[in-house]
Amino acid sequence: GGTIRFEDVHFAYDPERQILKGVSFEVPSGHTVAIVGPSGAGKSTISRLIFRFYDVTSGAITIDGQDLREVQQETLRARIGMVPQDTVLFNDTIRYNVRYGRPSANDGEVEEAARMAQIAGFIESLPHGFDTEVGERGLKLSGGEKQRVAIARTLLKAPPILILDEATSALDTQTEREIQSALDVVSKNRTTLVIAHRLSTVVGADQILVLEAGRIVERGTHAELLAKD
Ligand code: ADP
Ligand code: ADP
């Protein structure tokens, strides 16, 4: 489970400048909602509020009806998985980096997640390139490979809620397509909020919200939004 609700959320980092100006939406349990809009609209701010890096100025955010202000940040981090635009990996093996998603996982579970994300071939390697200390275990991962490590970590963690914040936007078109299909596997039947720049990358979402200057200006399915233009 895990229904996320925003109820007339206002937010400002600094009182002089409103960033979110009355944002209301719901991500029903198991569904995928996407937020698209221009740079600076406030999209990433929404994901930061869900993790309680900041609290709303007014209005409320709830998960399964519980106000986030009553939920500890650690609890939220345990329940919510995130694949960011650029994944920062620990300078330890890929196996270690995947296991970080759920430290209690056994080797078989780590390997299964790595297999599903198609990184099983190099889980004993280190991610940041060759140096004399690590010799042949040093592998310089591409952006797409790093995203696959993040995906394997998320598969292993299996969080009820998932946030994909521009998770494919740093990749070339071909890699983006490959990673997108891996993300579709992770987000299937999971409460998922996708943050994206372009409408074309969120075709499969149950609902798309268009955010501009802190306000939702349109909402609908991909087909509905295309028909409006
Ligand atoms: P988006 O994800 O749509 O590009 P953001 O949510 O990252 O937009 O940012 C919305 C606005 O908030 C931007 O104008 C940005 O400069 C501002 N902003 C983002 N983070 C901070 C911060 N920590 N302090 C002050 N302003 C911020
Ligand atoms: P919820 O927490 O919303 O009940 P589930 O835990 O049932 O969602 O998982 C949602 C999706 O993620 C399903 O399609 C399931 O196959 C997949 N999934 C769940 N756990 C794992 C896991 N450990 N490894 C790989 N896929 C998983």
UniProtKB/TrEMBL annotation:
Residues 4-229 form the ABC transporter domain. The keyword ATP-binding applies. One of its GO terms (cellular component) is plasma membrane. Keywords: ATP-binding, Membrane, Nucleotide-binding, Transmembrane, Transmembrane helix. It is found in: Cell membrane. Belongs to the ABC transporter superfamily. This is ATP-binding cassette subfamily B protein. It comes from Breoghania corrubedonensis. The lineage of its organism: Bacteria, Pseudomonadati, Pseudomonadota, Alphaproteobacteria, Hyphomicrobiales. The chain holds residues 372 to 600 of 643 of the full protein.
